[in-house]
Structure formats: structure tokens, C-alpha cells
Amino acid sequence: MALLEIRGLVKSYRLPDGEPTVVVDVESFDVEAGAEVALSGESGSGKTTFLNLIAGILAPDRGTVRLAGAEISAFSEAARDRHRALHVGYIFQTFNLLQGYTCLENVLLGMSFGPGPNRATAEALLRRVGLGERLHHYPRQLSTGQQQRVAVARALANRPKLVLADEPTGNLDHRSAREALGLIREACRESGAALLLVSHDREVLAGFGDRRDLLALNRAPRAQEAAS
């Protein structure tokens, strides 16, 4: 059994005029445990919606998402949140760090939704991503690349089985992007987590042996940018 199994997944939104628009319509998609998969997706292809369905942030209109042996598409919102906290690490394009909290506190807060905060583990993760000297810095005191490193540490804090990365290099310069991508892949390999990365950057995609095209998978019409 694959770590992630998707069958007949459909999600739609209503446009301002009230008309429903199908954003995601994926018949079949699997990711094996420990795999590295890069999913190409241009703006408006539904890539963020697709990742949010996998993470359980959104519920599908129909279809199934089975992750780590559980059909999360059948769960309540609270149950999906618990399952995500235990099994999924999410690296957002905009990092989603809490600006009023330090690097260490951001990672500890991420851990609080899973097994519970562990200061030693959080500090070790931040040292692992090169931020051992900045544990008590706030996001505003960090470069963009350093903020991305905090986001990586937070995503790995609960030892997830699957890491989702949504355009993780989109806000970084070329050098920082290359370093961040290498760090994400290395950290996932060390922890044994599968990695599902979505990007439109051809250079990022070229580094993955398993590359898939979301537009080829997605039978829905091209989604509106606001829903992507």
C-alpha cells in the first residue's frame, strides 16, 4: 500500500457570479513511502488546492484521500487536523511564520499540535538547518532564506511521514533557492519522509527523477488564479 493514495478526487469553488468551477479533478495519484516526487503546476492549475486536500486542510467534494493508512477524506475537520499534525509537514511558499514568536517558539508551536513540544528536538532541528545561533531571533530579524530554514525545521518537527512543499523556492534568489531545495531534500531523506514538491520552476523540477504534470493529471478546466 502506498503512503498516499488518491482516487477520484474532485474539488470545486463558486465564482463571484455563483457559478461552480471545478479546480481539482484527479482520477488517480500515489506516492510511496520515502519517495521524492516533483509536481509541475503553473499559476491557476490548482496546485495549492491539491496540496491542501492532501493535507486535510480542505475536504473534497467527492473522492478519497488515503494517507498513512487512513482515509482522511472521510474524517471530520478536527480529525483531519489531528492526522495532519501527526503525519504531514507543510512548507508554505510564504513560510507562514508567526511574526511575534522567535525561531525556537515557531518550531515549538508547530510541535504542540502533534505529540507535544520538545525543546531539545526543536533546538536540534534549528541547528541542523544552520540556525543554531539564531534560536531567539524573530522572523523580521532573519533573511528570507533563513526564514525558509525555520519553515523547514517546523515542517520536520513532528517527524512526518509526508512533507508537502508548495513552491518552496518561489520567494528566494537563485543561490538561496538552490540551498533551500538541497536542505529540504536532505532533511527528508534523513528523517525517512516522503517529499511531494510543487513548483513551476524548470530548474527545480529537473532535479527530480519522479516528475509529474498536474495539468496532465487534472481533468478540471484551468482554475482561476484566485483559487490556485
Short description:
The chain has 228 residues and is an alpha/beta fold.
Strand order of the largest sheet: 6-7-8-3-9
Which superfamily, in CATH terms, is the homologous superfamily? P-loop containing nucleotide triphosphate hydrolases
| Major sheet description | 5 strands, parallel
Calculate the terminal CA-CA distance, rounded to whole Å.
29 Å
> In the CATH scheme, what's the topology name?
Rossmann fold
Question: What would you say this structure looks like, in words?
Answer:
This protein is an alpha/beta fold. The chain has one domain (4-223): 3-Layer(aba) Sandwich (Rossmann fold). It is built from eight helices and nine strands. The protein has helices spanning 47-55, 77-87, 103-111, 119-128, 144-156, 174-191, 202-206, 214-217, and strands spanning 4-14, 20-31, 36-40, 62-67, 70-71, 88-91, 162-166, 194-199, 210-213. The chain has a five-stranded parallel sheet, sandwiched between helices. Strands 2-1-4-5 form a four-stranded antiparallel sheet, with helices on one face. It is globular and about 50 Å long. Residues 224-228 have low confidence and may be disordered.
